[in-house]
Design goal:
Elements: H1 3-8, H2 37-47, H3 51-60, H4 68-77, H5 90-100, H6 108-111, H7 113-130, H8 141-151, H9 153-161, H10 167-192
Helix pairs in contact: 2-7, 2-10, 3-10, 5-7, 7-8, 8-9, 8-10
Length: 201
């Protein structure tokens, strides 16, 4: 049964399913966000956001290795670093935790990819609530939400009004657009149940 048919039949994902997403490999070159397509689909369904948005953001955040050991070393060198496969900063996580009564802690993001993806999906849901229904046409709604994920809600709302993003935000947006088709392919494979997507088995 595909993920879509499970949802249509009322067999929605359970919170316990998130524990099944394996820890990313320690070798930086071996990490592929597409391996987490099942976890993305579960997290997006629970949060009520687009799986394609979440998966594309995950690809955008794959610029550094995400193994728990490497993230611990990174935090030792840079205490304010973000954690988890979705690169969430502590202040952002704490807002999401309070808003949605999450049981975990910020440090859990580095050890639990499913939890990190679920928190990212909830954050995107919160950003969507803060995004005006009407916005400039140069960006899609998902693009603005991705920019909000990267730069914060206040900047997202400014971009929606027509303020031009700075160089780093423009680079993030270019990568988001470039990863869109790869993210869609990963989700399609997971929905078909194609072999090879073993991260959530």
């Amino acid at each position: 049964m595909t993920r879509r048919s499970m949802v249509e039949s009322g067999q929605g994902p359970s919170a316990a399913d998130r524990d099944e997403a394996r820890v990313p490999p320690i070798r930086p070159g071996a990490y592929d966000p597409s391996d987490y397509a099942d976890a993305v689909m579960r997290g997006a369904e629970e949060a009520g956001v687009s799986p394609l948005l979440v998966m594309t953001v995950l690809h955008n955040e794959a610029y550094k290795p995400h193994h728990p050991l490497l993230e611990r070393l990174w935090q030792w060198w840079k205490p304010g670093a973000s954690f988890g496969v979705a690169n969430m900063h502590r202040a952002t996580f704490e807002r999401v935790r309070r808003a949605h009564d999450l049981p975990g802690r910020w440090h859990d993001l580095r050890d639990d990819p499913g939890f990190a993806i679920h928190a990212a999906a909830l954050h995107l849901k919160d950003l969507d609530r803060g995004l005006p229904r009407r916005h400039v046409r140069r960006y899609s709604r998902d693009e603005l939400l991705a920019l909000g994920y990267n730069t914060g809600e206040r900047n997202m709302r400014a971009f929606a009004r027509g303020v031009l993003p700075g160089p780093m935000a423009r680079s993030y947006l270019r990568r988001f657009r470039a990863y869109r088709s790869r993210a869609a392919e990963a989700l399609a494979r997971a929905d078909r149940g194609d072999p090879g997507d073993t991260a959530a088995e």
